[in-house]
Batch of 2 targets.
Target 1
Amino acid sequence: MKRILVIGSPGQIGSELTPRLREIYGENNVVAGYYDFPLKGSEGPAEMFDAMDAKAVAEVVKKYKIDTIYNLAAILSAKAEANPKWGWDVGMECLLNCLEVAREFNCALFTPSSIGAFGPETPQDKTPQDTIQRPKTIYGITKVAGELLSDYYFKRFGVDTRSVRYPGIISNVTLPGGGTTDYAVEIYYAAVKGEKFICPLPEGTYLDMMYMPDAIDAAINLMEANSSKLKHRNSFNVTSMSFDPSKIYSAILKHLPDFKMEYEVDPLKKSIADTWPNSMDDSCAREEWGWRPKYDLETMTEDMLKVLSEKHKKGLI
Ligand code: AKB
């Protein structure tokens, strides 16, 4: 049985990954790490600490005899552009602390990378697993540095580091906040509330996307994969779908024909999205550890609208 620490448990991914890990491994075997506010609605051990403090991370790992860390601490792409040093510090210090602690206490470590790890020189269609990575955002720079550092700790010290390059993640539990792909979440909230949606990216901006249940499966399945089968580690391309704003709008219109969307382009978000892939090739993840997403745009839209409509009726959103 694993003993797991989730850093960033109340965040967009953590708030759904932590309960799922507790279902699989037992609630007492998964510690919900948090910095400012705790994860709500999931029973089990919780610890408040600053992951930028190496000693604090080590103490929690020692106290709970942790053998697997999910390090979800990050400042998303658009938000980090407003304060690049903060973006770098959070991304890199937390990772380095986790790597050192993982080395000392023999832990496996999962740290998400992102489509943000690619840049304008990267081939944008069917972006290969191994390709040029010259991102133009501080977020992307931390992600590339994180991939390299994680591979370095694996090769140099044998730390079991693993990672996926997440696309935009769409969920109905916790809002993301500060990402370039956030529009693909916000559009569903506007639709169920009967509000007009103002889209910050122009028509034709294709990006890879994924529904949260698949994102959670990707992290857990990669961490469960047979190590000897992994030719890559940090980090695997994974994707479920690729769409532009007009495609997601059309998918919602099939259920809510009166829904309205207008474009009001945010130049920062557009400039970031323009440097990211249109669609990635995730065949290495499929071959090396059996990655298979369950949701596409249609099935995700159906589920998002169902869950969010119920929440809206109850006055929860
Ligand atoms: C962002 O938009 O910054 C993130 C990401 C794709 O990594 N959702």
Target 2
Amino acid sequence: MDNLSVDHLTGIKNLTENDIQLIFKTADAFKEVINRPIKKVPSLRDITIANLFFENSTRTRLSFELAEKRLSADTVNFSAASSSVKKGETLIDTVNNILSMKVDMVVMRHPNPGAAKFLSERVDARVINAGDGTHEHPTQALLDSYSIRERLGDVSGKKVVIVGDILHSRVALSNIYCLQKLGAEVMVCGPTTLIPKYIGELGVKVEHNLQKALEWCDVANMLRIQLERQDIKYFPSLREYSMQYGLTKDILDSLSKKIVVMHPGPINRGVEITSDVADSEQAIILDQVENGVAVRMAVIYLLASKIKRQ
Ligand code: CP
């Protein structure tokens, strides 16, 4: 059987193109399963997975839980807000206590960049990064590229612009790695203050004018302004940001071609995207959410196949 070149999914940076294509091929099979009347397979009946969320989440958390249930894995859920982390327990102690209850895999969202890799080097379980601070969100990037492939037939050769708060976005970095490995051209667009200075080293184009960026692209991935990660003001006001970088129906209709519109969620309607764009047939936002379950099933299934059963 084909398998991944990695034992953990801590980021897209250390995946090969073959890894990503294998995840997509496996997700194709699981997408067929989750559209059947009985949406479940018995593949992981002997596997226990802990979902550890040290940060808020709606889509990622529910999507992982559903993916695990569809694969018949046993799951336990942990939320930092109601745990003994509040009493001063360390990350490693918390996880090792959970693992001593015979857990095979950990899905973790954590506010600190590098937390998933740190954990993967210290505990005896497969680790999946469900978002680590401003660093990476690998399963989001995989489901985003999978959704582009589904809508446009291929990712290779496509032009994708990521618009908004690139500086604070783990989605942007994982998408840049994933899209480039699959042969897409990537541009970032936003105010100078929200584009990191090192971005040129990643081989992406930079454009500060939204209209020009949209004329260039086949796909626009609109990101939320991450106010919760901003310690200082990066632009005068949300209203001014929205006037310069918000995607409206008028802008979309003024373009010379029909582009695909994406958003990882949660959406701030009326800021980075208007409601009529988010709900238009050019937007694949809910397809992204649906594909997330199949893609996460694929990742969990492929990593679980590397667990040595006694
Ligand atoms: N896209 C995403 O990561 O959403 P959540 O924060 O709701 O999981």
